[in-house]
Amino acid sequence: MNANYADRLDAAISRAGNACLVGLDPHPSMLPEEFAAARTSPSRAERAAAAGDFLCEIIDLVAGQVPAVKPQSALFEIHGPDGAAAWERVVRAARAAGLLVIGDVKRGDIDSTARAYATAFLEGAYSGDDARCDAITINPYLGTDSVKPFLETCGRTGTGVYVLVRTSNPGGGLFQEHGEPPLYLRVADAVVEWGNSLVGRCGLSSVGAVVGATHPSELALLRARMPATPFLIPGYGAQGAGAAEVAGGFLPGGRGALVNSSRGILFAWREPRFAGMHWKDATRAALAEMIGALSAAASATRT
Amino acid sequence: MNANYADRLDAAISRAGNACLVGLDPHPSMLPEEFAAARTSPSRAERAAAAGDFLCEIIDLVAGQVPAVKPQSALFEIHGPDGAAAWERVVRAARAAGLLVIGDVKRGDIDSTARAYATAFLEGAYSGDDARCDAITINPYLGTDSVKPFLETCGRTGTGVYVLVRTSNPGGGLFQEHGEPPLYLRVADAVVEWGNSLVGRCGLSSVGAVVGATHPSELALLRARMPATPFLIPGYGAQGAGAAEVAGGFLPGGRGALVNSSRGILFAWREPRFAGMHWKDATRAALAEMIGALSAAASATRT
Lengths: 303, 303
What we know:
47% helix; eight-stranded parallel barrel; TIM Barrel; alpha/beta; homodimer
């Protein structure tokens, strides 16, 4: 019996006391010097291993402090099979450290292909139970029948999905705001409907939504429209949003949302204000800052 | 200097004399008995290798007869790192056999993440030049800034993309038909615009569109609206469309489109009409049928 993802998420946020989601995006060019092999080694296996080494150290730094991490698939896929091995190693390490793992894969396809993606990322059948993700991001463009296979897998395995609804990039509106009502509201309503059959005891669904923090008014609007939907909010930190911008995404008590920062945590040592610090100390300081800021924002929602 | 993808595509279609795109979707449960290890072996490496063995035989069967093949990423990803290794082996084998390779990966993300996907699939930098795809499928939901990194890579490496515009699945209309004009026309216009800077000497662009064959009237409408856009048309055969349904997707002379069949070719031996045939003979017969039907449909467009 696998516990519902939403229940596990709600418990993890409550246990950590904050909604920080640490994005694991191992850009080879940005890693600290001690992991320079990720960009300089002539061996792909060594490059991938160095990226994995770095992320395992990050996992050690953040374990026990945040509820979840979000590895970014693209930065592993650049290393081919060696990157896929590093992915499994990082997922295993994060789960062993008690962190929820949200695989940022943004997959989307139809029928048996969608089912294969669900199998690849959310089932233990092929990768081993310890190397599957607790949830993944998916793309809704192909419609309900492209999402159904993921929902079936989520129900069976106690996992979740976060559907792209409104993204934080400057050009995100081109198609997402198309029509009247804008497409993203149509997608939001579909997400609510898809989620109805996967509501946990905590009252939240295992079908979440990716909602960018660079649109605070939309965030509050979507929060009201999707009261049982867990949000994954990107755009914090390096992408420009602060705690005030994400506050509208929380449910009362600071529940129901994860706020992602990737390079703001991983590569904090590159920021002028942390100049001279060891990269680990810079990461610790940046994480403490983010936790403080988010906790304050969440407190403002406390019932 | 890398030749423009559209020019290479146009030459490949002309050389083969048909527009068949063989989809390489190695569903473990459907492979012929001699590749049963793909579903029965306790070793993931052996399962992935059996899937790769099967596809390498398919490549031998279709080489010289069709312009291109389309491996489906999900069916490799289920095998983790071993699947990624099988992917590279299959891409290498297809390219060595003179086939164009269109990676069906449907990726889509922003900024440096999109760039990493482009690097992973379209550059030789990490995988070796012989293991990169000639083109990949991408998802447009995140807008222009999510597509730009792919376009830049295509221009530099002589590769292409096929943007999901109108998909062939029953539920594809839910979001793709949203608004007035429907979203897919808005996406189609963006595809044309994105493609303007990547037009080859043949007059076609390296920025293509995925347009389902299950909507023949839309196919003709989009063909008229996107006169320089290569089409990738799924939905033929197992998904229900015949040669008449795809005819509207061709430019005069049978140019400008690839028509995909996956299980109709790979798993032809499972169809009652080929009962008793060796799987290779069934695949040969199904391919000959499809080539004949498509050639007839393309002839009808000859100027």
